[in-house]
Amino acid sequence: MSLQSSLTHAINQRAEFFKQAALQQTDCFRVFHGTVEGENGLNIDRYGNAWLIQTFHQTLTEQQLAQITEVLNAHIELPIIYNDRAKRNSRIENNLADDFNDFACSEQVIQENGIKFTSKLRHEGQDPLLFLDMRIGREYVRANSQGKTVLNLFSYTCGIGTAAAIGGATRAVNVDFSSFALAAGKKNAELNEVADTCEFIQSDAFPALRQLAGLKVGGRRGQKLPKYPKLAATQFDLVFLDPPRFAKSPFGTVDLINDYQGLFKPAMLTTKSGGTIVCCNNVAKVERQAWLNSLVRCVEKQDRSVSSIEWLHCHEDFPSFDDNHPLKIVALTID
Which of 233, 238, 209 shows the shortest CA–CA distance to 147? Predict the structure, then answer.
C-alpha cells in the first residue's frame, strides 16, 4: 500500500473517533501511527490548529511530503509542521519556511477533554509539550483525584498534575528536573485556573523521591552530589510514576529494563495505605506480565500488599500489534 493510501485508510478508520473527539472538546490526537499503520518511524498528529509530522527513521522526500499534505488538506486544511528527527539523537534537523517556522515556535493552546494545554511545536527541547498517548493516564487521574493528594513524578509539562487538580485534588505536586518543562506546567495550571492546587518542584527525581519516602539520599559511587531541594517525608493518596527509558545523574540511574524497582520502591513508599500508584513503562521489549510480577514482589518485600490491579490501555488513535502497546500503564492499589 502506498503512503498516500495508508494515510487515507488511517483517517477513514478514525472517522468515528474524530467525531467523539470533537464532542469531548479534544483537538489533539494521533492521525497516523506509522509503526503499526505501514510506515515505520512516521507519526502524524493533530495539535490544535496544526498538523505535526515527525519522522524518526527516514527523512521524507519532497514527493512524500506533498502526498501527505494533499491527504491532510482534504481532511482539514491546517498549517503543516514537519519535524525531521531521523538523524542525531532524535533532534529536529530540518529548516522551515519563515512563516511556518514562526508559527511552529509560537505558543498555541490545545484542548483534551476540555482541559487546556500550552503547545509549541518547536522549542528548546525535542518532544511536543504534551504526549498524546498518555491521554488515558490523564483521564484516569482526573477521574480518581477528588479530595486526594497527588504526586506526579517525572512530570514533564505537568499534564497529569493539571488533570488531577481539575479532577478535584486538594494538592498536586509535580516533580521534574527541567525548568523549561515546569514553566510550561505552570502555564497549563494557569490556563485551567488550578494554579493554587498545583505545586512545582525542580529536582532530580532520586533525592526528591527518597526524601518523600523517608529514605537517605545517596548517589552513584564516586559522584559528588549537587545541591537539591530539601523535602519532608510525605505520603500521597495517588502517585504517578512515568520515568524516561534511561537516564543517569549523580544520584542514580533510571533504567526501565533492568532496574524499574530502583524508582518504584521509594515511589511505593510515598503511597498511603489504601492509596494508588500508577506505573508506566514505555519500553517495548519489557514483557507486560513479567513487569507487573516484579512490581508486586517489590510491594510484598515491604510487607505490604496489592489489593487491586487495573491496566490502562491507550486509545484507538494509538493502535498496536496484537493489542500489545509498547506503553504499559498499570494502577496498583497498595494496602
Answer: 238
Whole-model pTM?
0.97
- What is d(CA 300, CA 305) in angstroms, rounded to the nearest whole number? 6
Whose CA is closest to 206, among 235, 222, 226?
226
Write the pLDDT tens digit of every residue in 56-100: 999 999 999 999 999 999 999 999 999 999 998 899 989 999 999
Supply the DSSP string of 11-48, one letter for each residue.
Answer: HHHTHHHHHHHHHTT--EEEEEEHHHHTSTTEEEEEES
Contact 82, 53 (CB under 8 A): yes
Residue 46's Cβ-count burial label (10 Å; 0-12, 13-18, 19+) is buried
Mode of pairing for the β-strands spanning 42-47 and 51-55: antiparallel
φ and ψ at residue 143, rounded to 5 degrees: -80, -15
Q: Are 231 and 205 in contact (CB under 8 A)?
A: no
How far apart CA 80 and CA 124 sit, in angstroms, is 20
Q: How many residues make up the chain in this entry?
A: 335
- Which pLDDT band holds residue 323 (cuts at 50, 70, 90)? confident
Q: At what angle do helices 179-191 and 159-166 cross, to 10 degrees?
A: 20
Among residues 80, 19, 87, 92, which one has the least CA distance to residue 47? 80
Q: Which three cell numbers stand for residue 89?
A: 539523537
User: Long-range contacts for 226-231 (Cβ within 8 Å, ≥24 apart)?
Assistant: 226/250, 228/203, 228/204, 229/201, 229/202, 229/203, 231/201, 231/203
